[in-house]
Amino acid sequence: ITVDSLKNTAENINNSSKTIFDNSINKKLKISDFELLKTLGKGAHGKVLLCERRDVPGKYYAMKIINKKHIIENNQLEHTIAEKKILSSLKNSFLVKLDYAFQTDNKIYFLMDFMKGGELFQHLKKKKRFLENETKFIIACLILGLGHLHNKSYVYRDLKPENILLDDIGYVKLSDFGLAKELNKEELAKTFCGTPEYLSPEILLNKGCNRTVDWWALGILIFELMIGIPPFYSKNVQEMYQNILFRQPSFPNNISMSNECKDLILKLLEKNPEKRFGVDADSLELMSHEWFKDFPWSSLMH
Ligand code: ATP
């Protein structure tokens, strides 16, 4: 993206934007109070730019620009509304926060925490695998983030390394709430959605899912971070689905992994969601697993 096209974008935004969400307590901001700096990435429905507050140099945000026409044409209206609602209503150190939202006739602009460290996916690709202690730290942050979402009655449904962002010192936050859904305690979400490697048996069998679907995905993630590949992976998607439904994960001998870690993975990858670890006390159940014995939870929360 060129500087000229950024300037054009900035002018179009400034001419016609309306504020739809503002998290600031004292000073109300307009979109013209931000300078666009560079493109951070492209998503399915728009792009994400880095921008800086003009009045507070060094205060950066990620600006997600969503094309309204694209949203309507791709039946994503409900997901976008959910994303805006969740981003603006939840405040937790392990969930990416929305600070401002603006709209013009054609576009929606979300200004979120800028996560300088990028996607966990890129780090995994580069490192191939994480050490057990590194994995434990990342997973602990996610347990707190997902636990908060669940407490507020949302199921996330799209846990994967691409949706986990790192800040400048390595704390992780969940982003992309497009598939999150508000669910009452006894309710089940029926839509078939997610990412093949991370789909749970109950989703594949169209039985509907509740918040334990996120703990299944967390089991897949721990395995992928430690081993470098998801547990049921196959190039052939149908075969992968068969593996998810009928096979148990197997741990390679050449990678060192504690028994406690294996035990947690196996308990999270329980195929029956009613027996899955986390079904009773949600994040508290995971926090009290042996793998986290002596883990400094209260320091992490602070
Ligand atoms: P979707 O499926 O909704 O299109 P996506 O992850 O493909 O999701 P976006 O969420 O629009 O797309 O993100 C596009 C790119 O911008 C990704 O590479 C992502 O890492 C980056 N990005 C998104 N949010 C932030 C942020 N808050 N800070 C830094 N980079 C971000």
Outline the secondary-structure elements:
Elements: H1 3-16, E1 18-22, E2 34-43, E3 46-53, E4 60-67, H2 68-73, H3 77-89, E5 98-103, E6 107-113, E7 118-119, H4 120-127, H5 132-151, E8 154-155, E9 164-166, E10 172-174, E11 181-182, H6 201-204, H7 212-227, H8 237-246, H9 259-268, H10 283-287, H11 297-301
Bound molecules: adenosine-5'-triphosphate.
The site of adenosine-5'-triphosphate has 21 residues, from strand 2, strand 4, strand 6 and strand 7.
Describe, in plain words, how this protein is organized in 3D:
By secondary structure, this protein is an alpha+beta fold. The longest helix is centred in the middle third of the chain and has 20 residues. Helix 5 runs antiparallel to helix 7. The strands form three sheets. Strands 1-5-6-4-3-2 form a six-stranded antiparallel β-sheet, sandwiched between helices. Strands 7-9-10 form a three-stranded antiparallel β-sheet. A two-stranded antiparallel ribbon has the order 8-11. The chain is 37% helix and 19% strand. The protein contains eleven helices and eleven strands. Adenosine-5'-triphosphate binds next to strand 2, strand 4, strand 6 and strand 7.
